[in-house]
Amino acid sequence: MDVIKGHREMGGLVGYEFELTHLTDEHARFVVEEWSKVHLSRAAKDESEMDYVGIVDSDWDRFCAYSQVMASVEKSVLDTLSPEEIAELKTIYYIGRERLFSEVYEKHLEGALKAHHLATSLAGEIRYLMTKTNLLDALACGVEILGRRRLAAELRFLRPVLRTAVDFL
After folding, report:
1. Model confidence over 24-39: pLDDT tens digits?
2. Angle between helices 83-98 and 123-130 (to 10 degrees)
3. Is the model more confident about 45 or about 85?
4. Is residue 96 a contact partner of residue 140, using CB atoms and an 8 Å limit?
5. How many other β-carbons are positioned within 10 Å of the β-carbon of residue 145?
6. What does the pLDDT read at residue 167?
7. Which residues contact 114 (CB under 8 A, 6 or more apart)?
8. Is the pLDDT of residue 51 over 70?
9. What's the longest Cα–Cα distance across the chain?
10. What is the sign of the dihedral through the CA atoms of 137, 143, 147 and 153?
11. Under 8 Å CB-to-CB from 164, ≥6 apart: which residues?
């Protein structure tokens, strides 16, 4: 039982909750809400009409509106999250996306923190994460692997009916 209680993933399966190192629950929910502002429903659009950001190539006004929303979200996240939280967000994303073991968490977080301390700007990291269509799923899976099943359920509950960025203007 002591092994299970001390192991993030196994302990989470039996009801133990483990704290994340830097990222707060409030900020994790905030990231999901900001992320939802830049994505759209795949079901509502014909995939053949979309480019990589989900905007029809020939619609310059919509592309400009998307860019404005992305810039606003990027600034909002940068103003809200600390560099350590951004590093942890990226770490959790990769743990969830790749379904890594919880044992690699500290090592991956340490590597992300070192990389972020060397970076001149974290705006690119935020933009990279905000463009990921699988961010919500990977983040929820990652926090679940790290023993935060309650937070994972909360994040999944926040799943928006995704709209185009233009709908927010």
Report:
1. 999 999 999 999 988 8
2. 30
3. 85
4. yes
5. 23
6. 42
7. none
8. no
9. 60
10. negative
11. 40, 54, 55, 62, 66
Other Cβ atoms within 10 Å of 61 Cβ, number: 9
- Strand, helix or coil at 80? helix
Tell me how many degrees the CA angle 162-98-101 measures, rounded to the nearest 5: 125
The span from the CA of 98 to the CA of 96, in Å, is: 6
Gyration radius from the chain CA atoms:
17
Q: Token pair 């560099």 is at which residue? A: 83
Strand (E) or helix (H) holding 50: none
DSSP class of residue 54 equals: S
**What's 140's DSSP letter?**
H
The string of pLDDT tens digits covering residues 55-100 is 445 577 878 888 899 999 999 999 999 999 999 999 999 999 999 9
Boundaries of every domain in the chain: 2-168
Q: 76: which 2 tokens?
A: 């909002």
pTM greater than 0.85:
no
Contact 40, 163 (CB under 8 A): yes
DSSP one-letter code for 159: -
Contacts of 12 (CB under 8 A, 6+ apart): 18, 144, 145, 146, 147, 148, 149
Q: What is the residue whose two structure tokens read 């690119």?
A: 124
